[in-house]
Write the C-alpha cells for this entry.
Amino acid sequence: MVHNINVEKFGVRLRPVRLEDAEFIVRLRNSPLAAGNIGDSAPDKASQEAWLRSYFERANDLYFIVERVRDSRAVGTCGIYHIERNVGQGGRWLIEPGVPAAAASCWLSFHTCFDILGLEVVLRRAVESNKEVISFHRRIRNPCVGLSANSQVINGKRIRLVEFRTTKADWFAISTELEHYTCMAEEFL
C-alpha cells in the first residue's frame, strides 16, 4: 500500500517509507539498540528491498520514516498496520540513539491513527525486557492491558510482550503528556 500521509510537528516529520530507505532501515533494525527488542529483520539491503516491495502491495499497512524537519535526516521508523474495523497495531518504532524524537514521533503516530485515520483503538506491544519503551508508555499514561506469553519469535526464541491498548478517549490525556515531553526535546532536534 503506497500511502501519501505526511505529518509533522515538534521538529519531526513522518513520511511514507520509500524503497531507497532500505539501507537506513537495515542499519537501524540491526543496531545494538534493536537487538532482542524487535522481531527478526532483513539482514541486508537486498532483503529489505524485497520486504518493502511486498509491503507496498499490502493493504491496511502504513510504514513511516521519522525525519528531522530542519534537514530531512532520517532518524527512525514507525508503522501502523493490521488496520481493521477501526483498530490498528502500532509498531516498527525505532529511533536512533541520542536523537530525542521518541515523544514527537509517538505523538504523530497517535495523531495519524486517531485524527487522520479515525481509528478507535491502537494496540502496541513491547518486549517484556525492553524497560525503556515500557517505561515510556507508562510515563505517558498509555493503558497497559497485560502480558502475552510466547507471542513473538526473536532470535529463534519465543518471548513475552507487554501489551498496551489506547482508545480514542485516552488520546487527549496521552497527547497532553507527549506534548510536555516534545516541547522539552524540540530544541535539540
User: Anything to note?
Assistant: Residues 7-186 form a domain with the Aminopeptidase fold (CATH 3.40.630.30).
